[in-house]
Amino acid sequence: MKEKNRRTEMKKLCIKLNSLIPSLISQPFKLITQESQFDQSIAYIEQLRDRIEVLKVKRNEALNIVNVAGKNNTRCNAKDYRPTLSCDVVNPSSTVEVQEVDGGLKVHLITSLEGKVLFSEVISIVEDGGAKVVKGGYTTIGDKIIYTLHAMARVTRIGMEVTSINQKLQELIKQSS
């Protein structure tokens, strides 16, 4: 009886594992050997671990850009760091980066916690410039808030007012500080 319960529990756990690994989801459970299921699970977990390391490196690079720009307290051209990226330092702890990419727009706004910039205000400015926000979010790292938006032009023939969006975001940061 104990062995039967153990096997039933193991089968449930294997089915749960099968449902969490993308390469295994579409395959029927009975056609996959447990050994191949575990091998694919291990490979997937290793991929995730590698992806986490890459994202950590990118985050550190972004923080270095922010820290270098903040220490200089001047207008800067961050093309040395990344292609087609522009940044304007409004105050030592805030930057605005607006990048036009393939008919779309990437916005990175970095401000201090006491800056009190609302995410909804950032979205409104981008949408007023003729863009539709596709995805966005914000995160807090230390004493900084990093807002990230990806947007597409509402009407591709007309496009977006990138410089206007950039100017309005800079004004928003100036008002909040």
From TrEMBL:
- Identify the domain of life: Eukaryota
Tell me where in this chain the BHLH domain is found.
1-48
Keywords (alphabetical) are: Nucleus, Transcription, Transcription regulation
Q: Name one GO cellular component term.
A: RNA polymerase II transcription regulator complex
Q: Which Gene3D superfamilies match?
A: Helix-loop-helix DNA-binding domain (4.10.280.10)
Question: InterPro entries, from UniProt?
Answer: bHLH_dom, HLH_DNA-bd_sf, MASH1/Ascl1a-like
Output this protein's name. BHLH domain-containing protein
Per the record, the major location class is nucleus
Which GO molecular-function terms appear in the entry? Answer: DNA-binding transcription factor activity, RNA polymerase II-specific; protein dimerization activity; RNA polymerase II transcription regulatory region sequence-specific DNA binding
Q: Does the keyword DNA-binding apply?
A: no
Whether Transit peptide counts among this entry's keywords is: no
Q: Where in the cell is it found?
A: Nucleus
